[in-house]
What we know:
Low-confidence stretches: none
Shape: flat
Helix content: under 10%
Mean pLDDT: 87
CATH class: Mainly Beta
Order of helices and strands: EEEEEEEEEE
Distance between the termini: 18 Å
Radius of gyration: 17 Å
Amino acid sequence: MYGLDKAAVATRVLTMNYGVRVYPLWRSGVDPKKRKTSDGRIYKFSCLATRGREVAPDEPCSGTYYPIYPDQTHIVFNVYYTRNDFAKYCNESGMKLLGTLRINTPDTHFGLNRQIEFSLTFAKMEIKATAKNKRNGKTYDETTFELDI
């Protein structure tokens, strides 16, 4: 209980790297050819919070992401964690899926120009994931992942 008292413990140090799976365009000379998908993209790990980082309770660790297709009506954020400080791909050894957050993005009239801020917040005994439309400030959805690491 002492560790959960915000007055007694103001920060915590992360023991894992946390991030989401992204699907950028594959780049010749940069990305391994064997990882190129049939539609010219590649699955990668986008780190939001690094192992060893000191975070305050409820301090968000965020990144900005965009839809892949202009008519896309939802985005799936697969959240991963690993001890590997140099992780690049979500299927590497030691990489584990923490959970998934699926959000609806019905504002397709903006095409690819729809910034989504995805945040992980490290609370008492859980990690909270939130997605927010940066254009209008609307929070799309949020979910909580129980820590059992």
